[in-house]
Amino acid sequence: MKCPYCSSLESKVIDSRPTEDGHVIRRRRECISCKQRFTTYEKVEEIPIIIVKKDGNRESYNRMKVLNGIIRACEKRPVSMEQMERLIDHIESKLHSSMEKEISSEFIGSLVMAGLKDLDEVAYVRFASVYRQFKDINTFINELTKLLNEKTNG
């Protein structure tokens, strides 16, 4: 690691500890040459995820876009921002663990729907109505019937 004071390439690690979220390691270092101390942060390099849309177009994964959809579905519902953040963290964990570089938007939508179903049924139906593009009341009723059947059989 290059010293920010004298540009020497030799330093020693004095202390290492994870940050609060556990995704980054904070290291205190001391330069061998000038004895100055400095802090570095180390994290795993993540491979960018490309989303393949229904029409075949591709775009970079955008956490805020998914979070905004979840927020809209949960509007005026008893779901905290912390719960929504945990849901999106869980979704991102599944995306990264899939080891795929390209992921379909349908897969992400199904992960969001599964998470919302456990979190809040009204938010789930709201999201499903937009995601599955309900064309009429019958499609909406069919989805509600499936949800009710799962609830009574589950």
From TrEMBL:
InterPro entries: ATP-cone_dom (IPR005144), NrdR-like_N (IPR055173), RNR_NrdR-like (IPR003796). A zinc finger (unnamed) spans 3-34. The keyword Transferase does not apply. It holds the Pfam family ATP-cone. Its cofactor is Zn(2+). Binds 1 zinc ion. Residues 49-139 form the ATP-cone domain. Keywords: ATP-binding, DNA-binding, Metal-binding, Nucleotide-binding, Repressor, Transcription, Transcription regulation, Zinc, Zinc-finger. HAMAP family: NrdR. Belongs to the NrdR family. Negatively regulates transcription of bacterial ribonucleotide reductase nrd genes and operons by binding to NrdR-boxes. This is Transcriptional repressor NrdR. It comes from Fusibacter paucivorans. The gene is nrdR.
